[in-house]
Amino acid sequence: MNICVCIKQVPDTNEIKVDPVTHTLVRAGVPSIVNPFDTYAQEVGVRLKEKLGGKVVVISMGPPQAKEALKSCLAVGADAAYLISGRKFGGSDTLATSYILSEAIKAVEEKEGLKFDLILCGKQAVDGDTAQVGPEIAEHLDLPQITYALDIIEEDGEIQVKRECEAGYDMIATKLPAVVTVVKLPYEPRYPTIKSKMAAKKKEIPVLSEEDIPSIDLACCGLKGSPTKVKKTYTPVREKNGVKLAGMPAEEAAEQVVKLIYDAKIL
Amino acid sequence: MCNLTDYKNMWVFIETECGKAKNVGYELLNVAKPLAEEKGCELVAVVIGKDIEGVAKDAIAYGADSAIIVDGPEYEYYTTDAFANAMVALVEKYKPETLMIGATNNGRDMGPRVSCRLKTGLTADCTEIAIDEETGNIAWTRPTFGGNLMATIMCPENRPQMGTVRPGVFKKGAYDEARTGEIIKEDIHTAPEDIRTRLVERVQEVAESINLEEAEIIVSGGRGVGSAENFALLQELADVLGATVGCSRAVVDAGWMPHAHQVGQSGKTVAPKLYFAIGISGAIQHVAGISGSDTIVAVNKDADAPIFDVADYGIVGNLNEVVPALTAAFKAQKN
Fold first, then answer.
1. What percent of the residues of chain A are helix, what percent strand, and what percent coil, each to the nearest 5?
2. B interface mutation test: which of A129, A251, A265 has the most B CBs within 10 A?
3. How many angstroms separate the CA of residue A214 from the nearest CA in chain B?
4. Which domains are delineated in chain B?
5. Best A15, A30, A172, A263 residue to mutate vs chain B (most B CBs within 10 Å)
6. DSSP B115
7. Are residues B319 and B299 in contact, defined by beta-carbon separation less than 8 angstroms?
8. Residues of chain B contacting residue A239, judged by C-beta atoms under 8 Å apart
């Protein structure tokens, strides 16, 4: 089974702080990581390959430094990696990004001399949180999709996906090729070893720009190809002047709060 | 690029399964109603499902001016292909200016498929929807970077303008049985061989259905609760108040509670009358999911925990003492 895993390098959003004076994001010193949901997509992809044979190719659209993220995927089982990076790609929203990735996937198939049976993405990236790029890649490639995967099982050239739903899960089957977006797995992604890290370091990561994807329609890329425009951004205001009780016995504090709640007719 | 003046009216997708509507559709009608009035356009409920005429009537009672229904056996359970095909066909025929979709797992599965086929913009998980004064476009506001930043997004040159909204962010309007409106039936079908996914099995994991989005009172615990067993303290408080128990992501990661209970950016967005944050530090991802609460009560041993910044009432202390004291005090008050 040949598998393409789409990953994104993101800032660790747990580490992001808001500057209290300028009200902007402080990104300096915030580590870049592989989007956590994508690490699950990569792990299940590698496990399927180990069971069934084939190849796992990781791709990422981003600036040159996203190569670091691709290297870390090569260190945990991916066979090859491509960086999709070009001047005309900047400023893309999800529609343009998914278009570029879908064209890149076709270009990578040609370069690798194979056809992908399965395209895996994380459910969403933790910086943008849209969950749109996976389904949009499926639409551009006219493939079936299964989102919110908790596990993927292969059986007779078909896959069955355990799909998260509100009160439990559904088992959904589809024929290949298909696109699956992954939430979590019953197991954790593997860690690299020193040896696998060294080997990953030595591997070359080809960069595909607009010039390397001749079929691409540049009118569908970047700002020009993006129907959504960001009008403004701001940091949410979270200061409330609430009542805070400290340094008193639990019973007393509890009684006061309950009284305040009833006095304010909240209950 | 399309001729913007061809596109009229505001649509809300009412998601159904087995003929039953999900509440988020009705919540969206309530948000869209004043916007449609401001625009002077019709508010249309779009219902896709099986045996859904009752749902269309309910949608009108909840504020829709009219409804379009697509009924068929293939819509009993959600599939990407059948639902996206039906929605795209409707949009191409009627050309709505705006389309809102509930950000359930199915809504977030269908939404991008539809917007991509129509080559238009989709804004995910909006928490605020307004009309931009200058351009008349919809201004969709959403949290990004894990809730650290809010972004207002517009789709100026493509139609329909599409957005998803998570369940529980907005409240349903009043049900007015006296309201009437036209119900248009559209016969749209996808052939079985063109539905490329198949539901093999449905497994209900949550014993009693947990409905955090509609709970009036929620008692939530975080890492500070210390163990799965200790959630019994929270359950006792919840029992006295008739509340639902929720938790933070740390609790799910630790395996103390199932994901269905999780509140926050990667869990449920909630908007209860009263929210208890017990042993929850108040990471921005959690706070992003509770900011619709009317009143927040925080209990934490760390006086500097950020949860106190958003709490209306805070108690600094040991939750093992404070929570039973709260339970006792509410019990006393009720008697």
1. 35, 30, 40
2. A129
3. 21
4. 4-194 (3.40.50.620), 212-334 (3.40.50.1220)
5. A172
6. H
7. yes
8. 309
Cβ <8 Å between A16 and B148: yes
Nearest CB to B149; choose among A25, A140, A261: A25
Q: What is the pTM of this model?
A: 0.90
Neighbouring residues of A127: CB distance < 8 A, sequence distance ≥ 6: A8, A10, A11, A13, A35, B144, B145, B146
Among the partner-chain residues B116, B125, B203, the one whose CB lies closest to the CB of A169 is B203
Neighbouring C-alpha atoms within 13 Å toward the C-beta of A156:
1
Q: What is the ipTM of this complex?
A: 0.93
Domains located in chain A, CATH noted: 3-225 (3.40.50.620)
- Cβ–Cβ gap A226/B121 under 8 Å: yes
Identity at A88, one-letter amino acid code? K
Contact A231 B153 (CB under 8 A): yes
Average pLDDT score, chain A: 94
**Tokens describing residue A138:** 């499926």
The size of the A-B interface in CB pairs under 8 A is 254
> How, if at all, do strands B10-17 and B149-154 pair?
unpaired
Give B102 or B212, the one with higher predicted confidence. B102
Give buried/exposed letters for B213-233 (b at 16+ CB in 10 A, else e). bebebbbbbbbbbbeeebbeb
